[in-house]
Amino acid sequence: MYCSRCGTALADDARFCASCGSSVEAAAEAHPSGSAWPHDTQPATPGRPAFMQGMPGSVRLASAWRRLGGHLLEVVLVVVTLLVGWIVWSIIVWGRGQTPAKQLLGMRVVHRETSTAARRGRMFAREVPCKWLIGFVASVTVIGWIVYFWLLWDSERQELWDKMVDTVVVIDPDNELDTRRR
User: Fold this and answer.
1) Extents of the domains making up the chain
2) Which of 66, 119, 170, 179 has the fewest CB atoms inside 10 Å of its own CB, making it the most exposed?
3) What string of pLDDT tens digits covers the 182 residues of the chain?
């Protein structure tokens, strides 16, 4: 059992948390199952979106400026690697929820529901049909260019293609969400 206030592991017969002093009865009322939360989650952090509560504390949403830098770096990498190198690199890192530029900038695409790195299929859907569709709409309509600024007013900093495949882009400085670490 875990303290619902601070997340400290509690003995089965504990009445109070040794770390913060809160009552275990209060924890049981808040969580009728008797278990405050699973081992791999952390206590609620004020100002952190609800879907990120189970992620490691060092993981945070990527800023709009960092994402813009990622888009610009992606274009440079496509040109420098003559597209073929970028495609091969992309296929490799998509399995970790990254693009080549996101890998270099320490960002990762995360599936909102599972709080895990997006896999190849979701990354392909996000990068190819979703972005191409939005790019086509943006190229034929003046209003379509607004979708590229979507993350500026979105509370979870999602672009429209992120909403289409239910992902968010986070900064993962310690590679804690890397699927190879499991």
Assistant:
1) 1-39, 60-181
2) 179
3) 666 654 556 788 888 766 556 677 644 444 444 434 444 445 556 667 888 888 888 999 999 999 999 999 999 999 999 999 999 999 999 999 999 999 999 999 999 999 999 999 999 999 999 999 999 989 998 888 888 889 999 989 999 999 999 999 999 999 999 888 76
